[in-house]
Structures are given as structure tokens and as C-alpha cells.
Amino acid sequence: MNVRDFVQNGTRKKIGNGKATNIWEDNWIPGNKDGKVTSAMPQNCNIRRVDELISGFRWRKPLVLRTLNRKDADKILDIPISISGREDSNYWLHGGNGIYTVNSGYKALSRETAQHIGRKADEAETSSANSNGKQWKWLWKLKVKSKIKHFIWRSLNGLLPVNGLVFNRTHHGDPICDSCGEHNEFIEHMFFQCSRAQAVWKMAPIQWDGLTEQTGNFRVWWTAMLEVSYRTEGREHIELTTNILWQIWKRRNEWKFNAKRKHPWKTVNKGQQEWQEQASAWSKETMIPEDAERDGEEVEPVDVRSDEMHIRISTSVQKQTNSVGTGILATNFSHQVVLAWALIDRKTMNQLQTIAEAVKMAIIKARHQQWQKITVHIPSPQLLKVITTGVAKDIKMSTLADDNNNLRALFQKCSFCLDRRLDKRCDMISDYALGIFQDEEWINPQCV
Ligand SMILES: [Zn+2]
Description:
This is Reverse transcriptase zinc-binding domain-containing protein. This protein is α+β, with helices and mostly antiparallel strands. Helices cover 43% and strands 13% of the residues.
């Protein structure tokens, strides 16, 4: 099996905006054997791309039912559509723990090509002697801030002032890593081996599990990463990776110099955000003072008259009609109901997904209200885990977890906690929703 087949067989398209996925040829249907549709393309059908089946972040249900057979249509209608409008991406099915990870699947590949990579690393070693080498050209071409390019360049050349290096050169200071306090801090420790760095990678949208064996030498790792990226998604992944490396370094400095602990999510989000903003980043190369760091998980001083909204979610399923009723309840600091929604929708195949969809709807509703601070009470410990760790078992959940985390970034504060099911009002709404034909919204006039 050649590399291409090997990758293709284990990969499914994860639908984002649907633009890059061909309905009839790509492997995009979850649960189908090779991921392809079982329907034959109807004669005179000119629908080719998945985005033609989508409108306003929803499936065009009648069209889906008309174009594909029932079996495919049901599976398609069950696929969550990303609200971020991101590009379709590849999802590796055989990741060790099912995390959305671009490269866990390349473990086998990187073994296969270890020799090849070793050779490349040697070349890199040689080319490092002259900064005009191919590798550097690659680096300077990346669409990332120039300070990040310099940072990578310094990292590759052993010029980053990590504690271990400083100590070895000057015999001053302490070689121990400030973040974990356990090991000497060399660049590989700072990027990969430190427990603090690993917490970041665990939550990152891109992971390089396949390169674990290369983490002992940053330059070897970098070369292998270029190699793998070059064959798959190309420059974008490299750019995202450099942003994450940069944020790991910034995070380390925040702790060392300002004694500020940053939540791994914050670090990942920041890297991802800067990556997405890369175009505009060109124009604002100057340093802008950072926003005050905020983390949902950190304990904030309790303000009694807080403007924070508490959002609770409940779902009721009716098997006969294949529908799900969702109740969303927003209460203020004094447990007063401010707004409530009853939504009726088609049931998804999996219960966890149903709840995740409901949570997403709740956050969207809160966003429409322009609330700045919310706490979302999650009615399932399992789902809470997916949301807080970003670790999802399948493509659908991974899209929903991504969405929830993208949405989260739109708030000044958005934290998640486990709903201890003390407030029964929400359950009443979801039961009620099963009997309605159109979504309903209630506003408490006392609160507007
Ligand atoms: Zn450490």
C-alpha cells in the first residue's frame, strides 16, 4: 500500500463549510464502510459539492432527501455543521484515543519513513551551517509574524535563552525549569517534555503524536514536521504549529517573569486566533498590549450583583416522532429567570450529540443577547469532559466541541460547569417543547 492509499483509507472528511468535499467521490459519510455514499448519482444531477446541500448552517433537508437514498440521507442529516465556516478537513479515524489529531495516524507513517526523515534531518544539520539553506527559505516564506519566524530560527539554532542553556553557558542562575520545577530546561523540555507544555498540546487542534520519538531534538522534530505537513495539508499546518510553539514560549515567560499561570486553553486559543488572523497580522506588527488575561477556570472574586448569566439546558427525546425538545433557561444572579427558549428539532442518533447540539444552541442564544459573562451548566459529565479537554471520540463530536470552544471565545467570560440538576424548570421546558411546532422564546419583562 503506498502512502497515499494508506492515508486515504484511514481518513474521513470532516465537514466544515462543505466546499472542498465532493458528495459522490469523497469519504465523508460516517458509518459507511469506506465513507462514501451508497446512492448512485441521479441522472442529470448537477449537485457535486457538499456545500450545495447546506444553507444557513443547516442541511437543506428536502434536497438531501431528494438527492440521496434514505440510508445516506439519514446519516448526512445527522452530521453537525460547523458554525465557524471553517474549511473541510481530514479526520484520522485510527487515532489512538480518537482525538482529532492531524498526525496520530502518521505514527505508522513516520516509522515507515524514519530513515527518510533521518536523512532529511542530516541535511537540515548541514544546511543550518549556512542560513541560506532550503530550510530557512521555507521558514521565511511562512505567513506568520516575523517575530515568530525569528523565534523559530533562534530555537533551531539553540539561541533561545532557556534556563538549561543559559546555565551551561554562563554558570549562572538555575538550570531547572520554572514551570514544572522538575527538570533542566532545554528547548525540547520547554516545547514538548514539560508537563505544562504537554497540557497545551493535549488541547491543541493539531498534534504531532507521530513525532513523539523525535521530540528529543527540536531540529529533528521540526524537519520531520515539515516533511509530514508537506505531504498532507501543507503550509497551513506548519503555520498553526509555529503559532502554538510561540504561545508555549510566551506562556513559559508569563510564568517565569510575571508569575502568571495561563490556562492551556487560553494558550491554544491564542495560537489559533493569531493563526487565523495572520493576514491582518501583517499590518499590525507592532506590539499591542495584551488584554487582561481571563480564564473561566480561575477563581474570580465573587461579585454579589454580578451580571453573569447562568444557562441551563435540558433535552427530552420522543422516539416515535424522532424529535427532540430542548429547553434552555437563563437565570441571573438572584436565580430569576431572564429568558427561556423551547426548541423543537430532529433527533440525532446519539444522545451525547443531542445534548452537545443543545449546548451549542444555548451558547448561540446567549450570544444573540449580547451577554458578556455566562456560565453554562452542562447536564452530562461526559460532555463536560469533551468540552473542557477538547477530546472527542468521533468526527461529529469533534465538530461540536470545536464549535463550542469557538463560541466560547466570543464572550468576555464563558465557563462550563456540571449541572447538578437542582433546577427542574428547564426539564419542564424541554418536555413542553416536544409538543410545539415552532421554536418559542419567553422574556421576563421584569428583567429587560
Ligand atoms: Zn518543565
